[in-house]
Design goal:
This protein has helices at 32-47, 80-89, and strands spanning 6-7, 10-11, 16-17, 52-58, 61-68. The protein is elongated and about 55 Å long. By secondary structure, the chain is α+β, with helices and mostly antiparallel strands. It has a single domain (6-89), classed as Gcn5-related N-acetyltransferase (GNAT) (Aminopeptidase). Helices cover 29% and strands 23% of the residues. The strands form two sheets. The protein has a three-stranded antiparallel beta sheet with strand order 3-4-5, covered by helices on one side.
Length: 90
């Protein structure tokens, strides 16, 4: 049975937290603005705890990623459509 994480002879990693060992330069996910964010800001944002980025890599070269961040908006600052949803959820 073929390992689904194995492609082109090199195994993909499990999801890992982005670190200095990961090579970002060759990454192209198809959306240039997101590629640029990963390469220019992901590590700095992670060091400042403003976001956390997780990657899948092949031979240390990143082939996929996702980032998460926490934020909030006060009800007064939220667009009215969003404010109504918040009131319903509460």
């Amino acid at each position: 049975m073929t390992n689904l994480l194995e492609t082109a002879g090199a195994q993909l990693s499990a999801v890992e937290k982005l670190s200095g060992k990961h090579v970002l330069g060759p990454f192209e996910g198809g959306k240039p603005s997101l590629d640029d964010w990963l390469k220019r800001y992901a590590r700095a944002n992670q060091k400042m705890d403003s976001s956390q980025t997780y990657v899948v890599q092949r031979n240390s070269v990143v082939v996929g990623y996702y980032s998460s961040t926490v934020g909030s908006v006060s009800e007064k600052e939220a667009p009215s459509r969003i404010g109504r949803v918040c009131l319903i959820i509460q």
